[in-house]
Design goal:
This protein is mostly helical. The chain has a domain of 75 residues: Tetratricopeptide repeat domain (Serine Threonine Protein Phosphatase 5, Tetratricopeptide repeat, Alpha Horseshoe), CATH 1.25.40.10. The protein is built from nine helices and no strands. The protein is elongated. It comes from Acinetobacter sichuanensis. InterPro entries: Sel1-like (IPR006597), Sel1_AlgK (IPR050767), TPR-like_helical_dom_sf (IPR011990). This is Sel1 repeat family protein.
């Protein structure tokens, strides 16, 4: 039984705080010394990805994310995972997406932990593995990520990767609902 309830909602970049936008004429190049810092490289890549103060350029964003990810920047690793997942300027590749999501997830990044769970629960480029998915969702849920809490509830409700337990399902839906998750709030109305 494939879990149709799991949403593939990726890419934390859209929810990062806005950065001061660079003037297009004063934009540093890849060789600029200020980009030696992995966070600066990530932030510059984000600007190129979204076209903030510069012309949108996925290839340039990818290169900057890659340089930053090589320095263990988990946001850049997550972003590369997303770009591979979506096929933004690179060939769509779920195994590469998983590789980069795992790098960030192993550093404790909840959004990447959630995405690793999504990949396993849906069998995207890997063997479908509900137990692995549950473990990754649980890691993200313990970091207060509401959509991960909801997915834990759904897995308990349907018995995917865990023994079916409606009491635990309700508990997790409640936690997600308390964090503002609208889907969990709706689910509790019919529980």
């Amino acid at each position: 039984m494939k879990a149709s309830f799991i949403q593939v909602s990726l890419f934390i970049l859209i929810s990062l705080p806005s950065l001061v936008l660079a003037n297009k004429q004063n934009l540093p190049t890849l060789s600029h010394p200020t980009l030696a810092n992995s966070q600066a490289q990530f932030e510059q890549g984000r600007k190129y990805y979204f076209g903030e103060g510069v012309e949108k350029n996925y290839k340039q964003a990818f290169e900057l994310f890659k340089k930053s990810a090589e320095k263990d920047n988990m946001l850049a690793q997550h972003s590369l995972g997303f770009m591979y997942f979506k096929g933004d300027s690179v060939e769509q590749n779920n195994q590469q997406a998983l590789k980069y999501f795992l790098q960030a997830a192993n550093q404790g990044y909840a959004e990447s932990q959630f995405n690793v769970g999504l990949i396993y629960v849906n069998g995207l480029g890997v063997a479908q593995d509900y137990s692995q998915a549950f473990d990754w969702f649980l890691k993200a849920a313990h970091q207060e990520l509401p959509k991960a809490m909801r997915n834990i509830g759904q897995m308990y409700e349907s018995g995917l990767g865990v023994h079916k337990d409606l009491e635990l399902a309700k508990k997790w839906y409640q936690k997600a609902a308390e964090k503002g998750d609208a889907d969990s709030q709706k689910k509790l109305l019919n529980f």
